[in-house]
């Protein structure tokens, strides 16, 4: 099964890390990601730019609006993701707990829907 591990960060907690700790954690995270990729368990991983660089697009009553920045004001923001292959939700949760960012934010674990099944259902 495929799972998306969405990494949410909290700048307050990241800024409170001792000098050099962020880079140490990032190095460990990248090294571990390389190991998981070699095992075929990490399918993709990406970081996102800061929320201030985002645009929010909405269409309401046929009118498109584009706003700067994220939609919601929150302490935690989506900072990146890992697409993983795991045998179960429990295994995916264990993988999420291995990410150092669970200590300074949150890792949301969500199973991917079988998109081919959706495609077949709607005849696309």
Helix-strand pattern = EHHEEEEHEH
- Portion in beta strands: 35-45%
Separation of the first and last Cα atoms: 23 Å
Mind describing the biggest β-sheet? Answer: 4 strands, antiparallel
What form results from the Cα inertia axes?
flat
Q: What is the mean predicted local confidence, pLDDT?
A: 93
**Strand-pairing-aware structural class:** alpha+beta
Domain YCII-related: 1-115
Protein name: YciI family protein
Organism: Dyella agri
Family: Belongs to the YciI family.
Polypeptide structure, described:
Helices cover 32% and strands 35% of the residues. It contains 4 helices and 6 strands; from the N terminus they run βααββββαβα. It has a 4-stranded antiparallel β-sheet with strand order 2-5-1-6. Belongs to the YciI family. Residues 1-115 form the YCII-related domain.
Quickly describe the structure.
This protein has 124 residues and is α+β, with helices and mostly antiparallel strands. Helices cover 32% and strands 35% of the residues. This is YciI family protein.
Any key phrases for this structure?
Dimeric_a/b-barrel; flat; 6 strands; alpha+beta; YCII; 124 residues
Please specify the SSE layout and strand pairing.
Elements: E1 2-10, H1 11-15, H2 21-38, E2 42-47, E3 55-60, E4 63-68, E5 76-85, H3 89-97, E6 105-111, H4 115-122
Antiparallel strand pairs: 1-5, 1-6, 2-5, 3-4
């Amino acid at each position: 099964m495929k799972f998306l591990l969405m990494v949410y960060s909290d700048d307050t907690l990241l800024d409170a890390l001792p000098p050099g700790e962020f880079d140490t954690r990032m190095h460990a995270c990248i090294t571990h990601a390389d190991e998981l990729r070699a095992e075929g368990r990490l399918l993709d991983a990406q970081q996102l730019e800061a929320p201030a660089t985002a645009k929010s697009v909405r269409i309401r009553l046929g009118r498109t609006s584009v706003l700067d920045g994220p939609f919601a004001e929150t302490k935690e923001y989506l900072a990146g993701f890992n697409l993983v292959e795991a045998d179960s939700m429990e295994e995916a949760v264990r993988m999420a707990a291995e990410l150092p960012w669970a200590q300074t934010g949150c890792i949301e674990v969500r199973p991917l829907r079988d998109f081919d099944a959706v495609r077949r259902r709607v005849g696309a």
